Each structure stands twice: as structure tokens, then as C-alpha cells.
């Protein structure tokens, strides 16, 4: 048996920790301002955006903590893969926070239907504009790492939803000022809540795909198996498994049955190169078996 390690590519979340840190400071500072303004103005749209921004603060804080935990060496001897999955659990927390905020906004909005509500549109416009600027700055920071790290992507989607929430606040303020009816404040708040829920479900599917050890997005199990079978000296391939440990870290295992005259070293080198160069899998555990080996038949699952 052998295992292959490609050239060290670094930890995706760790490389973008600074983006999370700066975004966290921006969002946390503005959250206090928006919460006070929401309570003072009586705007549900502004309060819903403040609640979503609170979710941003928690999510970004958890993401920061996760990137720190993920890069710590294991001293217990029980975490053979280290603590890289901490980032995935932080992404799951982002999903739960987004769903919680969405549920609160929708329920509160439905309860407001038919009520006479007064809102301060001037405060809504000012705070909504400031919130939009803060969110755009955080989005620009997080965008650079959102394609490499699921953890950063979770934070990015949180801030993206909040950015649209700030736009919603501006639209609600304009409509209330134009029509004199506070019902638009409730309508926009409900729209924000539904949008946040949809984004949470999309991210949640990605998180559970990692936790369920599904074949990573962009990889084809049959294609990987066929490429391994085409390696010189390989007669058959079975027990091929592909999964994601954390963002940017795909893992593979496979059993390679060799021809009688094949060199195990050559087979391992060829299979390693195929996985790394064609499929981007830098960490693979490969078991090389002679053609008369029957041990795998004893495995019942």
C-alpha cells in the first residue's frame, strides 16, 4: 500500500483568514449602529437587516475561529485528519443562523399585516446607505476567497444576502416616503427573509455533501476509475472512494489489481500522477494487489 502527497498547496481557509478578520471588524462595528437606528425608527426592514447583520457577526467570528482551529496540530493522537472539518461546521452554523434570521423576519412581518405602523424614512435611508457601503466593502474582501474555501463562501453568502437587505431597506424607505404607507416596509422585510432562506438552503446542501462524503463537485467517479485502470500495469480497479475533507482538500482511496509482471512502484507512481495532474487530488491512499489476491472478497460492505 502507499499514499501520495502532491506539493503543499496550503490551507484554503487559512490563506484567506485576513479577509475574514477585516470583514468581521467592519460588520461588527456597523451592527451596533444599525440596531440602535432600527429600534429608533420603528422599521421592520431595518430591524431585519440588523438581525441579519448580527448573524453575519456570529458567522464571521465562527469562521475566523474555525480557520484557527483547522490549522492547529493535533496533540491528542485521535484526529488522524487533523481539525480541518472545523471549517465545515462553521459553514453549517452560518446556514442555521441564516435560517433563524429568515424565520424571525417572516413571522414578525406576517404579524404586522393589518397593523398601523409609523416608520422614520430619513433614518432608514441614511442607515441603509451606510450599511450598503459597509457590506460592499466586506463583499469585495471575501470574494477573493469564496471560490476556494467553503468556510469563506458561507461568510460571503451571508454578507451578500445582507447587502441585498441594505438595498431592500433603501427601496422600502423610498416606497414608504412615496406612498405614505408603511406596508412597504413589511413587504420588503418579507422579501429579504425569503431570499435569506433560499441562500441558506443552497449553502446547506453543499455543507451536507461534504459531511456526507459525497464525490466532490467537479469530479467524476467513473472517469477517475477509468483513468486509474488505464495506468500501465493495472489489470483492475475497485473500491474507489472520493470525498472532500475541507475546501481545497479532496481525498481518494482505491485498490489497484496489477498484472503479474507489473512493478508496484511504477503502478503507484503512475496512479499518483493521474490523480494529481488530471483530477487535482493531492492526497490518495492506494492499495496495490496481485491478481491472485482475494482478501477484498471478505469485506461485506
TrEMBL record:
Protein location: Membrane
Membrane-spanning residues: 20-44, 50-67, 88-110, 122-142, 154-176, 182-202
InterPro entries in alphabetical order: Cation_efflux (IPR002524), Cation_efflux_CTD (IPR027470), Cation_efflux_CTD_sf (IPR036837), Cation_efflux_TM (IPR058533), Cation_efflux_TMD_sf (IPR027469), CDF/SLC30A (IPR050681)
Taxonomic superkingdom: Bacteria
Gene3D superfamilies cross-referenced by the UniProt entry: Cation efflux protein transmembrane domain
A single Gene Ontology CC term: plasma membrane
Domain named Cation efflux protein transmembrane: residues: 21-211
Molecular function per GO: zinc ion transmembrane transporter activity
Name used for this protein in its record: Cobalt-zinc-cadmium efflux system protein
Family to which this protein belongs: Belongs to the cation diffusion facilitator (CDF) transporter (TC 2.A.4) family. SLC30A subfamily.
Amino acid at each position: 500500500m502507499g499514499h501520495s502527497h502532491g506539493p503543499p498547496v496550503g490551507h484554503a481557509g487559512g490563506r484567506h483568514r485576513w479577509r475574514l478578520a477585516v470583514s468581521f471588524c467592519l460588520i461588527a462595528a456597523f451592527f451596533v449602529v444599525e440596531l440602535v437606528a432600527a429600534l429608533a425608527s420603528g422599521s421592520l426592514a431595518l430591524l431585519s437587516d440588523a438581525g441579519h447583520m448580527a448573524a453575519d457577526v456570529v458567522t464571521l467570528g465562527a469562521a475566523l475561529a474555525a480557520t484557527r482551529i483547522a490549522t492547529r496540530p493535533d496533540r491528542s493522537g485521535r484526529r488522524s485528519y487533523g481539525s480541518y472539518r472545523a471549517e465545515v461546521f462553521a459553514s453549517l452554523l452560518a446556514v442555521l443562523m441564516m435560517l433563524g434570521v429568515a424565520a424571525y423576519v417572516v413571522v414578525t412581518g406576517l404579524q404586522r399585516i393589518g397593523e398601523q405602523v409609523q416608520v422614520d424614512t430619513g433614518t432608514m435611508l441614511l442607515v441603509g446607505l451606510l450599511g450598503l457601503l459597509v457590506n460592499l466593502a466586506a463583499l469585495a474582501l471575501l470574494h477573493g476567497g469564496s471560490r476556494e474555501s467553503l468556510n469563506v463562501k458561507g461568510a460571503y453568502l451571508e454578507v451578500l444576502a445582507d447587502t441585498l437587505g441594505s438595498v431592500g431597506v433603501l427601496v422600502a424607505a423610498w416606497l414608504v416616503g412615496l406612498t405614505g404607507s408603511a406596508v412597504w416596509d413589511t413587504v420588503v422585510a418579507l422579501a429579504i427573509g425569503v431570499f435569506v432562506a433560499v441562500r441558506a438552503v443552497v449553502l446547506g446542501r453543499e455543507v451536507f455533501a461534504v459531511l456526507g462524503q459525497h464525490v466532490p463537485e467537479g469530479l467524476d467517479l467513473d472517469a477517475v476509475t477509468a483513468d486509474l485502470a488505464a495506468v500501465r500495469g493495472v489489470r483492475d480497479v475497485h473500491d474507489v472512494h472520493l470525498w472532500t475533507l475541507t475546501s481545497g482538500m479532496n481525498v481518494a482511496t482505491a485498490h489497484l489489481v496489477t498484472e503479474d509482471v507489473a512493478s508496484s512502484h511504477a503502478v503507484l507512481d503512475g496512479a499518483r500522477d493521474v490523480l494529481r495532474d488530471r483530477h487535482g487530488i493531492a492526497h490518495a491512499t492506494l492499495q496495490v494487489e496481485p491478481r491472485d489476491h482475494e482478501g477484498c472478497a471478505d469485506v461485506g460492505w
